[in-house]
């Protein structure tokens, strides 16, 4: 029987499930998914085995949830921005700010997604990659709006992927040490993006 893929909705997660996911994400990010047993997750989260499995189905399902919940949050925020009616530059600015806010709140989850997506089965892996494609499509549509309005040049898919790569890989090198605020970093990324997409 084919697996039925169900992407978790962030607003449907209990406090206990969120806490388990946060603990597991930090363990997986620090030690690697393959090096962390489910009992270690339970111990770190303060749940016995029975209580832990009340909230999760399996270790792989937990990994999938970690990888997808922050992406669903990104997509939901981006869709709201896309249809906001703001100018294209303001939508790009808002997309930059929403990304940075979620990135700083979800750095372990992004680390796990970057390193461990290969550990998922084919169905789940395609589900995660599909969410990334959905998010990219929102940015693409905003850039296309800018080209139609004459405020941006037309960008190829490769150019959009390159711009989004700048965002998604920023978690590897941006430090959360308070040297710059999230807003300041988002503004710098906005400027880079608008210059890259500008008509010159």
TrEMBL record:
<keyword id="KW-0678">Repressor</keyword>
<dbReference type="InterPro" id="IPR036271">
    <property type="entry name" value="Tet_transcr_reg_TetR-rel_C_sf"/>
</dbReference>
<dbReference type="InterPro" id="IPR050109">
    <property type="entry name" value="HTH-type_TetR-like_transc_reg"/>
</dbReference>
<keyword id="KW-0238">DNA-binding</keyword>
<dbReference type="InterPro" id="IPR041490">
    <property type="entry name" value="KstR2_TetR_C"/>
</dbReference>
<dbReference type="InterPro" id="IPR009057">
    <property type="entry name" value="Homeodomain-like_sf"/>
</dbReference>
<feature type="DNA-binding region" description="H-T-H motif">
    <location>
        <begin position="37"/>
        <end position="56"/>
    </location>
</feature>
<dbReference type="Pfam" id="PF17932">
    <property type="entry name" value="TetR_C_24"/>
</dbReference>
<keyword id="KW-0804">Transcription</keyword>
<protein>
    <submittedName>
        <fullName>TetR/AcrR family transcriptional regulator</fullName>
    </submittedName>
</protein>
<dbReference type="InterPro" id="IPR001647">
    <property type="entry name" value="HTH_TetR"/>
</dbReference>
<keyword id="KW-0805">Transcription regulation</keyword>
<dbReference type="Pfam" id="PF00440">
    <property type="entry name" value="TetR_N"/>
</dbReference>
<feature type="domain" description="HTH tetR-type">
    <location>
        <begin position="14"/>
        <end position="74"/>
    </location>
</feature>
<keyword id="KW-0614">Plasmid</keyword>
